[in-house]
Amino acid sequence: MDKSLKSALPSLGSFLTGFGSESVVLRMAAPIATVHDITALQYALQEKKRYPIVFAEKPILSDGRESAFPVVCNLTASREVTAAALGVEDHRAFAKTYASAVGSPIAPLVVSRDEAPVQEVVQHSDEVNLLDLPALTQHVGDPGPYLTAAHATTYDPDTLVDNVAIQRCWVKGAAAMSYFPYPATHNARNMRKFWERGEDCPIAFWIGHHPLVLMGTQAKMGYPESHLSAAGGLLGQPLRVAPSVTHGERILVPADAEIVIEGWVPKDTFGPDGPFGEYTGYLGPQMIAPTCEVTCITRRQNAIYHDYGSGLDDMLVPDNMVMEGKLYAMVAQVAPSLVNVHVPTSGRRFHAYLQFDNPAQGEARDGLMAALSYRRVKTAIAVNTDVDVFEETDMLWALATRVQWDRDSIGVSGLSGSMLDPSLPKGARTTSKLGIDATLPPGEGAGPSPSLPRSRVPEDALERARDLLKSHSAEEWPLG
Amino acid sequence: MTETGSGTGGAAMTEKRGNTCWVQCPKCSAWHHVAPDLLRSTHVKMHCPSCHFEFFAAEAQAVIDP
Ligand SMILES: [Zn+2]
A152 φ, ψ to 5°? Predict the structure, then answer.
């Protein structure tokens, strides 16, 4: 293949080159520890509400060695950068664009192994050493380094359809790690099917790719249904995939990824996994998890290692934006006056804000019920277009002034929810949810809306005031 | 929204109770928290994140199981 064409293919490297400016990529040239310090840097940036992509050139492993691979994190911590990856100028418009792009899937393109940069280096059995990878130990209480951006790929042995999901792995030795798919996930279902046949489950984990591929493969799909085509829909071109070394065409891996870890999940073999810092912002308990035996690692010659800061905006932003796309499609089906959806990182993945344009009587409540049927959503709030769903003070103002709780709140119990919700009673398998209709009553024909008008000053007076402030320096202000 | 505590189900519905099991390592005395099925497992040992010792619940220095 022509080398110039190869470098232009969508990949983590091509994305970073496109965002090379200092304002978006924070390059850390100094050595920095993979145990806590890289994650601490993300916390320090988040404290300042700054979300650059972090590129650590010299990660130091827990045994004191300098890693041969740089670490990229905070890749998708900024809504603006993440939306820009999809070519969406305003991040607020992401939901609609995402819903339409994954709704038009494009089948992947299978290329040969020698056309796959991710197989430039192939290490078999004795050469495999997971401990060479700069996997981070993120939080106090994590028992060791975790792969957090490993896209676990399995397939359904009945239909041969592949499935991809980000699932954490605790690196326990040169070729050993834990592998934790939640029991409800499609990968866990595939694994159980192999085990029921008396077989070990074939698996491959790929790490590092263009954010569009990362978000496309996170699209919520039916079972069995391929995520690789959804990634193509988002890319606007087929995702290039190649046969894995261990599993051949049975497991195709993205040809332009950075690193692939191949192996088996042995039948009925379990070990401890965790505690681990979860997306909820809490350290989840140690659990019983399957294990993974690694047989082969392939990678680019100059591979970049990608990490997601678990529970940080780094991981929440892309995931929540993907949720917004899915929720938009679900709610719009029953409530056509839906304008936008925001899944705020403040609510982790539990809150959804829905914005409607003069919804008809009952329509906002229909929309709320649709949103609550999404497993992770625990609270959904409906507002009108005069309320900015991306401004939480605006959302709280709507709650304070447009809601009569007995009339406008809908409580539903016994729904499927996230088992990671720290408020769930011990042993609970379902959750209770709340919909809140904070919309205004619908308008009736011509004339003013039948509600109190919002206090405001004339737009031209506001512009004059803004201009006036430009001539005053901040130092002169009495309250700083 | 919530039924206030009248009748027999009231207290169960409204009283908050802890939901997290903790174990104390027999080797280094550090505490860590575990899922109930791991706490009760007789085939998978718990792993101390502080000293990496592996043990069953019966060997723990102490257990909190709310
Ligand atoms: Zn210990």
Answer: -70, 125
Average pLDDT per 10 consecutive residues for chain A, totaling 480 residues: 52 86 85 97 94 96 96 94 87 86 88 97 95 97 97 95 93 95 90 97 98 85 80 91 97 97 97 95 96 97 97 93 93 96 96 96 97 96 97 97 97 92 90 97 82 93 91 66
Most B-contacting residue of A419, A426, A433 (CB-CB within 10 A), to test interface: A426
Residue B45 in contact with partner chain A when CB distance is under 8 A: yes
Beta bridge partners of A284: A276
List of chain B residues whose C-beta atoms are within 8 Å of the C-beta of residue A412: none
Mutation site, B13, B28, B33, B39, interface A, largest A CB count within 10 A: B33
Give whole-number Cα distances, A11 to A7, A91, A248, A254, A304, in Å. 8, 21, 22, 10, 11
Rounded CA separation A401/B54 (Å): 55
- Quick one: A5-313 is in which CATH superfamily? Electron Transport, Fmn-binding Protein; Chain A (2.30.110.10)
Give the Cα separation of A86 and A97 in Å (integer). 8
Q: Is the Cβ pair B32, A426 closer than 8 Å? A: no
Domain boundaries, chain A: 5-313, 335-437
Nearest to B46 among A141, A272, A405 (CB): A272
What pTM, to 2 d.p., does this model score?
0.90
Find the CB nearest A288 among B17, B41, B49.
Answer: B41
Shared fold status for A5-313 and A335-437: no
The architecture that CATH gives domain A335-437 is: 3-Layer(aba) Sandwich (3.40)
